[in-house]
Amino acid sequence: MKNPIHPAAASSQAFQIAEIRPIERLFEDDEGRDRLEKALSRYPEKRAALLPMLGYAQERNGWVSDESMEQIAGALDLTPAYVRSVATFYTMYNKHPVGRHFIQVCTCISCHLHEADEVFERFLAETGTRAGEVSEDGKYTVIEAECLGACGFATAVQVNDRYFENVTPDQIPAILDELD
Amino acid sequence: MGYPYSHDLEVNTLLSRHFGDEKARTLEGWKELGGYATLPRALEMEPGAITEVVKESGLRGRGGAGFPTGVKWSFMPQEPTGPHYLCCNADESEPGAFKDREILRWVPHLLIEGCLIAARAIRAEHVYIYVRGEFFPFSRIVTDAVVEAYEAGYVGENILGSGWNCDVTVHIGAGAYIAGEETGLMSSLMGGRAEPWIKPPFPAQAGVFGRPTTVNNVETLAAVPMIVAEGADWYRQWGTEKSPGTKLWCCSGHLVRPGTYELPMGIALKDVIYDVCGGAPNGKKIKAVIPGGSSTAMLTADELDCEGTYEGMAEAGSALGTASPIVMDEDTNIVRAMRRIAQFYAHESCGQCVQCREGTSWTAQLLHRIERGEGSLSDIDTLYHLCEQMTGRTICPLADSVVFPLRSSLDKFRDEYEALIRC
Amino acid sequence: MSDATNYVTLTIDAVEVKVEAGTTVLQAAEHAGIVVPHYCYHPGIPSRPAQCRMCLVEIEGQPKLQPSCVFPAQDGMVVYTTSETAETARKSVIEFLLLNHPLDCPICDAAGQCMLQDYAFETGQLRSRYAEAKLVLGRDRVADDILYFGDRCIVCTRCVRFMEELAGDNALVVAQRGHKAYIDTFPGKDLDNAFRGNIVDVCPVGALVHEDFVFKARAWDMDSSPGICPGCSTGCNIDINVKENQIVRTKPRLNPDVNSYWMCDHGRRHLVMANRGVRAEAPLIRVDGELEPASWNEALTWIAGRLEAGDGAAVVSGGAANESLFYMRGLLSELGIDGGTFRVLQGEEITLPGFPKLKLRADRAPNVTGAELHGFKRSDELADVPDGGVLIVLGDALADAPADYGANAGFFLCVGSHLYPAMVNATAILPMTSVLEMEGTFVNYEGRVQRFHQALRAPGVARPAWMSLSRLLEHRGVGEGVLDARAAFQTMAAGTTGMDNLSWSGLGLRGELLSEAGQPAVAVE
Ligand SMILES: Cc1cc2nc3c(=O)[nH]c(=O)nc-3n(C[C@H](O)[C@H](O)[C@H](O)COP(=O)(O)O)c2cc1C
Ligand code: SF4
Ligand code: SF4
Ligand code: SF4
Ligand code: FES
User: Fold this and answer.
1) Which of B297, C43, C252, C305 would bridge with B408, disulfide CB 3.0–4.6 Å?
2) Domains in chain B, start-ordered, CATH in brackets?
């Protein structure tokens, strides 16, 4: 089990990370049970632990599979359909596996005013992928993102749980090098 | 202090004084800087007295709407019949806004202290800090600070021996702008789709988990400790009668020094843009500014001499919003910029209301077609029609939000639309 | 309702209307005879998300148009449902909804009863200024018998909320968000709820359709008649849709005391199955050992002359109408036969949680209470037939009877609608209309007497059993034959304990409870 976390932190763990630790049954080991129990302890209603648990599934597996959704539904007394309805509402839950480095280029207005489209195209070119697809070596997925909340640092790029700011197209090879 | 730049026109209250100083992130460092000094005082005050100070200070909500904070708190039941909740809105997703993140990442304990004092005022037993999912590095910093605060007895049971209990939970979202709208936030916090609901019930009657709830923005709550410590008059030394105090401005787009700055309320928008941020780079002229985040009306370069207050910006035909000017220089293609903004709203509509669900996506597609040179003049009429039908028709103001920049761009830059149509 | 403060008076489109406080503007308008177009609001679904924004109206003093489905009526309020702003807003909702709509009315099953088509027509919107590519979703299956046409869906979420709030089964949801939102189930978990069919009825457009109904009939070439579902003792009020004398569809009909807006899927299937089976079409009498067709008069005379009082047994059905059971009782009394039994098929009981009065009840017959009221007893077994005695069977009681049942009887009269193996032993067979082919009443589980109308034409010369039995009695010199359902009912009501308070016209469309004397012994839930 990873270092036990404080209950106040059970609902705020980064869930888009490079070091996934795949697991089939989310709540059948100590870590999963601990995370569930701690998250549940923070809300008067079970259902409120849904986003934290979807996050946990993605933190472990890199994406949220139908099986994970069913397990979460079981743990929270929800229907799998309900869990899917919520999971598909939010853009950050990957409904398909993604590359180990999940690259999101903000192309929203402030970044758009600063070469964001070029940055995005360059990421695609350098990784040899089309938007949303996993590169052949499994390393990269590049997508366009809506505002990342770093507008003063355009172009903003998020790679898993990290921010890269003031990114210009020519910096991209160096960024990709750094990721490896 | 601004981040990453600072300027003479700035004020350095506790809100921004420690931006850029990593020391402030830890409990130890924060205490050395004088942190957690106000909480003990607040614990000795009657909840109503805290609300009164905040009311007198005239602090207005920094989430965009500018609702007077003390008044909002006074809507909460005075005699609790069960739990009350405080939601700290750290969903910051409005294009152009990136001020709350500076508070989250540089002065997390200031935010926690503000949350606790507010919770005390509204008799809340649990504070949920709802941070947008993408902010992983910043929610991690706030989470670490909360855990430290628990360990030091500032949060949890019997806080500082006062007998008062209050929990703080950091809860992260997962990619939805609409989770920043207060009822959307509560829907999301309850484990649902972040769909806003129609009021009534108002949050202070039946909010999250069906209990009385107050939702406040990060910057609002972070301003509370200094107001309670220094008093309403002190806070009112800045700004106007209707818009007192200081405000974080986050400036982006074509600027020499983009970033966040704490400025006194009432500063002229042109001073923020030209003096503080250095105007557009490379000697370019400015064409347009969206002053309060993407949901506000565009101003032309000639319209920037307006007072940076809620009332001043309204008078100028726009809104202060989150004080997040997006600056566009003379080379900017307004139609293309507007298309990009519309695309954001189409992507973020929760989809409940027909006008918003269909209208935002139609707007984005129509603008795209004009941008490609395939538009016709009647499309401009259609856009105006869309503005009409997306205003004041929906559950939440997301649909209205796209209308502000859209209508103003049509009014003020019609020639650019027509040029693309004619070519 | 003596307390005047419970009422508010408001003006809607210049009509003054007085309603109970707490009524919404939309409901108040309904009182005034004004229909405010709406999609997401459904009177039977508790939640009011006010999300379709179709019901916006102008209210004096309100800066914005307000959703009338949630806005409470207030004293002195002045409402305009057709002001220019309200009309334009409504028109534009239609325009928005039609953007990505395939406009495939010519092949849509809802055409003719579609709330989108209706309003689009009313607001005269036939052309769109939408020049963008339409989003295409195609069709999908949400249950083994229900298809979802995503492109027609207006995401009003009625279906989702029916499943969640009424059926208590959160298995149908909105997936995705914004303009990409659509209705879906979890992969591999189609709806299997016993009440799922109602989602088709609540859908205001043609997005959800029963697969067995797809392309079968157009709304305007169906006849519809009000009926009572014969599927169980609840007695749901239904409309039976018929094309070419075949039931193509049944829909629940509002009765707040019985089934609200809903019915169960067992009932729907049961009714469509009623089209099947081999029917008795003409009276048959045994001549020289063979069953031979005869005219009604011949047959009745023949039977009346041969039936003798004495030892006997009677078997009836919990599916027969009260009037038929009443005259059956009359015949039995005349022959000196006491008692009589009926069997009731038993099934799993399933409740609709959001309206618990509606249950698919264990007794899978519509008139168990009525049969008991007329002195018949429930039994697990078919009655024993005394050797050489009289056996009279009414209704479809012999479907599973052994082939030699009744062979030992001296006289075996069968009044039935379908032909079953044991009926070869009958001395005479009188063809009976099914309850779908006649008028009459049932008494449901709680003692509510409900009237049903004729939905289908009867085959051959089949007649309602009350008619043939009353005429048989007449042939035996007792009373007069009755030729219409009203007379049959009134004669019965006057002569039956518990029914003396009832009148044919008084039953209306909601039914009436038996008087206390006739109430079923089993406590009402
Ligand atoms: C579409 C939409 C998005 C919003 N996003 C945010 C947000 O990200 N952060 C925020 O503090 N307020 C946001 N708001 C405003 C909130 O609804 C709410 O008014 C605010 O959090 C109240 O806090 P305050 O009174 O301290 O300003 C948004 C409003 C709308 C309509
Ligand atoms: S206006 Fe848009 S975002 Fe707001 S509730 Fe309606 S559909 Fe959702
Ligand atoms: S399928 Fe029908 S009932 Fe369900 S959301 Fe779509 S239009 Fe509404
Ligand atoms: S509950 Fe009974 S009466 Fe109602 S529809 Fe179902 S079978 Fe028919
Ligand atoms: S019926 Fe009122 S908003 Fe849908």
Assistant:
1) B297
2) 22-235 (3.40.50.11540), 246-329 (3.10.20.600), 334-422 (1.20.1440.230)
